[in-house]
Amino acid sequence: MTSPTKAEDSGSAAVLDPELTATTDVVKGEKQPEGRSPGQLMWQRFKRDRTGVVSACVVIFFFVVAALAPVISKLYGKDPYTLYAQEPDYPFLLDDFAMPSGDFGGISGDFWFGVEPKLGRDVFTMLLYGMRTSLYMAVLVTLLSVITGVIIGMIGGYFGGRVDYWIGRVTDFFLGFPQQLFFIAFMPVVTAMFVDPQDETPTYLRAVAIIMVMWFLGWMGLARLVRSSVLSLRDREFVEAAKVSGAPPGRIVRKEILPNIVTPILVQATYILPSTILTIAFLSFIGVGFVEPTPDWGRMFKVGTEVYEQDPMFLLFPGAALVIFVLAFNLLGDSVRDAFDPKTGR
Amino acid sequence: MSDNLTLPAQQGSTGASTEALLKVEGLTKHFPIYGGFPIKRKVGAVQAVDNVDLTVGVGESVGLVGESGCGKSTTGRLITRLLEPTGGKIEYAGQDITHANRKKLAPVRSEIQMIFQDPYSSLNPRQTVGTIIKSPMEVNGINPAGGREKRVRELLELVGLNPEHYNRFPHEFSGGQRQRIGVARALALNPKLIVADEPVSALDVSIQAQVVNLLQKVQEEMGIAFLFIAHDLAVVRHFSQRVAVMYLGKVVEVGDRDSIYNRPRHPYTHALLSAVPEVAVDDETENRERIRLAGDVPSPISPPSGCRFRTRCWKAQDKCATEEPPLLQIGGNREGHLTACHFPEEPSIEARSEDVVMDPALKALEKDGNVSKD
């Protein structure tokens, strides 16, 4: 049973290695053989992982939709701010209790995902723009946290000794903060730093405040990871070889160490991003993140929980979108890790 | 071997008559041990290298042998300035580089290179072979005629690799090939001195010879001085013109190859040489002395007083515990053959009337074996 498939496999594997077979043929030709870098090998392994490819497609789909939200809403002909219940074009959109009068939360050809209770806004565009807000914020926060974590971790790991000790204690100190309480308590403080509490806070400032607070408490995990990776790489002989050739520390870090820790950084970043999205949604949900009228994922859940007895459909689309996105992103992270490190079997 | 080696006058010299390229005097490296609670303080030191004197002449290859953990590699790392010496002096071409920082060291850097022990960790897995060999040239701003890439291809050819392997990654090569890449990297800067830290001990025996021959070819053709660190005495014998024997951070005996291998004086050298396995084709080759030491190398944290070998030496007396023997040319030694011993052995490796067996259990076993054989 197994032997024919095995033989077939090995045969195809031999053929599947065109670069190696080509090498022997083309040595005298003009094309020189190119070895496959660890990155290329990883890409090949990743392409074979069906879960990874599917979840990558889902994730890309979400990002494309978020990026194209204005275009889509233009084609769709609605925006997330207009109160359509008050528009003369759509009479009887909401009933006497301010709930969508149509079935299933008011889903119709005009309102694909239904109508928001009370205010009568369009759920589809609200979700589009809400995703846009969340994804942009999460990408920014993740990027900032990763860059900070990498720099701090690298400094600690490479220089070691006293520097490492004090950086480690600072990291521990930040890890000691109760994250969610800190977010709730400090969001108003950070906002008040920029704007008089009596004035209205502009939306961009809220975004900046959220990013700052989350950045402030988001880098520690990665810093520790990078530190330990650098620590194990620092004494490897190729680093010593670079030192013997007289390379300055900056070059050693950039050319010798950094390429070797891209893997754990990338894997960790794929875990940080979805959790950041959840945290931003949580902040908006409890009312310290984005406020009316900014469309946001977390705010939609807040409205949803207020009306879920009368209009359960309202929660369906944002909830499903969030679950699918976070699930797909986490699966993608797993696949990336598997592709990078084939030894960690399941 | 190269021509000048056949001249007996130079053979016997310690490199003092020829121009000394590297001169190490009283080199010491103590790794501090911290302990205590709640305030950590220095509670001791691993005396990895203690008062080592060594000279490497221009184009000369010096072997550094000894047991594991005796400070050979640390010495190599001190000389390439990967480690900061605790004391002593390293002089390269008349220039004191003992505590030179990176910038001050820059002009000398390209002349002292290193070949590492483990070919699997000495090449960056994320760089192509071309990048690996090229980067020392980039760091030192060397622009060879015809470009760096051409030079890399030449180097690859020189070390016996296909120049077309330029764009390959280290994981695509075997251990021996990787070590060749390491050699090519060391040669990229046209060094005058290469510290080879056990360059073949991680390799397959069949590959070892190839790499040693490559190093020998490099040494002879390019006139590069070598400090060859190894625990394999046969390899060192093949490669080195002079040999230094280390024990527990100290050089106990140094001399030209013939003196060390055929006329050793220090008991430790005798013991080391007798431990080299040899295939006995017939009984005639069984005329070497046999020495079995007992126990392990003492801890370098608290080395024995006086002579460090005394705890395992069969000739040790009270004097050995109180007085440290200086590294001298003792009576009966040829010129340049220095031994640090109060009670040196006869300059011979012929079999003794009775084997020296220090381990009591082994002694009992040996006796039984002899009885049954008789």
From TrEMBL, chain A:
It is found in: Cell membrane. The keyword Disulfide bond does not apply. Signal peptide: none annotated. It is a multi-pass membrane protein. It comes from the Bacteria. Residues 131-333 form the ABC transmembrane type-1 domain. Keywords: Cell membrane, Membrane, Transmembrane, Transmembrane helix, Transport. InterPro entries: BP-dependent_transpt_permease, MetI-like, MetI-like_sf, OppC_N. Pfam families: BPD_transp_1, OppC_N. The chain crosses the membrane at residues 52-72, 135-161, 173-195, 207-226, 271-291, 313-333. Belongs to the binding-protein-dependent transport system permease family. This is ABC transporter permease. It comes from Streptomyces cellulosae.
